[in-house]
Amino acid sequence: MNKETSLLKAAWLIAFVTIISKFVGFLRDICIANYYGAGFVSDAYFYAYQIPSLAIILMGGVGGPFHSATVSVFAKLINPDDKMPSEKVNRLFNTFLTITFIVFLILSILIFIFSDEILSIIIHSNNPELVTLAGRHLRIMTPVILIGGIIGIYYGLLITYRNFLLPNISPVLMSLSIIIIIAFIKNDNLGISLAIATSIGAVLQFLLQFPAVRKLGFRFKPCFDIKNNNELKNLVELVFPAALSSTIGQIYVYVDMFFASQLKEGAWTAIGYANRVFQFPVGILATAFLVPLFPIFSRLVGEKKYDEIKYYFHKGIGLLNFVAIPVMFAIIMLASDAVQLIFQRGEFDSNATYMVAQALTFLSLAIIPYVFRDSITRVFYSFNDSKTPFLVAMSSIILKFILNYLFIDKLGIAAITLSTSLVTLFNATLLGIILLKKINLDYKTYFKNLIKMVLAAVLAFGLSFVLYKYWTINNSYILLAIKTISVFILSMVIYTIIAAAFKIEYVGELLERIKEYFRRKILHR
Q1: Same domain for 173 and 193?
Q2: How far apart are CA 310 and CA 307, in angstroms?
Q3: Count of domains in the chain?
């Protein structure tokens, strides 16, 4: 019960700070859209940004290989209640950090030197000016690559010590840097200020984490304690396949970039904005529940308490699905209005709104398999197995290419996000089947609750769609906002009522906890 209470408290805290982070990220995207729209300059920046984002977000971010490996290994060595880490733990930290720094430094130098050549391979376009500008952006952003892995290790240590705030709030610094710099630098026709602000934001993230890690008792001294170091071996065995897995995931992006560069100008920017809107609710949910669950999974695997792993898995994924499923239906119904409200101003016109909404609608189909895949992946990592997620991700690269090729002529931008949804479903299914060899998570219960939730969402949003269809408005942002928010709230209320009537396992418990919370607040008054 204490673990469950701590889990829920941590989930609420992480959800709160992640909402702040995602909201500021939204403001950043609105500013970029306002100043640069969806065209040549924004395409160049977003093409270039895919490489540093691999380091700072996928490899070094919360849930990335360096964060995951650090939590998985250090959670078994550290008691979070201890005031100082042992000498052995500090030495392991220093060795891991030293090796990471050297590897990422070499990568940064190589990417700086060969930036134009790298992007000319990725961008399949007869536009050398686009490749040249993207290469210039990439060279400016190479410090982001160097910082990525280091931040990931810091994130992992902080979360192992139950410090969930800093790792989830620090991405705000990059968003704020971009907002402030592009707002004050005028006549930036090439978007150079975007690349500069991105690098500054990464440095600020590092500077925010550094004193917090020192406060825990970790002191950095270059160290190569490699010989007969089993813990370092475990870290490398986790990081290397997981890093390759993230790189494989990025290859999906490069495949998408290859096809998007053949479409009309602004297509890649539109796909990027669609992914950001998608990640706002899904990222909050996945981060809020999976970040505090991961250390619990790792400790329970070490203690061989497999029944408890099953319990917490269903608890986490059940609550995730309960919120994620209506979000998926809401995106499908309200995508166009939502994109118009968020982005359509300045250089971002109605054509850009249409492109983003189209991409977002098909991407929303990935929500359920996305949640399942990420939950299952954490269980694999808890068993010190990052090879399986890597091999599964690698196996679907060809599938991604084939699906893009088959759909691109008929669906255009939508082909790329639809193929993403189908590949996510493929990965989730394969991982779920393979995990049965390690532990039986009782998928029957999972699908039973999932079907009930989907049916409740279909009924709720079917009823709400009648209101949405016949509620006509003039060209007014205020009225459009009122309509969108009202329909969404009504849909969620109906969905919750139907879900409670269906006696979905986690709904009654969640509502009871909310009632208990407000009851305690009233009694304290």
Answers
A1: yes
A2: 5
A3: 2
Say whether both 287 and 399 belong to one domain.
yes
Model pTM?
Answer: 0.66
Please say if the pLDDT value at position 514 is more than 70.
no
Bin 304: left if φ > 0, else alpha if -120 < ψ < 50, else beta.
left
Domain contains 225: yes
Residue 153 — φ and ψ, nearest 5°? -65, -45
Domain boundary among the residues 244, 263, 282 is at: 263
Instruction: Give the tens place of pLDDT for each residue, 97-151.
Output: 888 889 889 989 999 999 888 888 877 666 788 888 989 999 999 988 888 878 8
CA atoms within 13 A on the CB side of 16: 9
Task: Name the strand (E) or helix (H) holding 358.
Answer: helix 350-363
Q: What is the CA 79 to chain-centroid distance, rounded?
A: 28
**How much is the pLDDT for 3?**
47
For residues 383 and 520, membership in a common domain is answered with yes
Residue 18 lies in a domain: no
SS3 391: helix
Radius of gyration of the chain (CA): 23
Please report which confidence band the pLDDT of residue 430 belongs to, taking 50, 70 and 90 as the band edges: very high
Domain around 438 = 266-525
Identify whether residues 245 and 373 lie together within a single domain: no
- Angle of helix 367-382 versus helix 413-435 axis, rounded to 10: 40
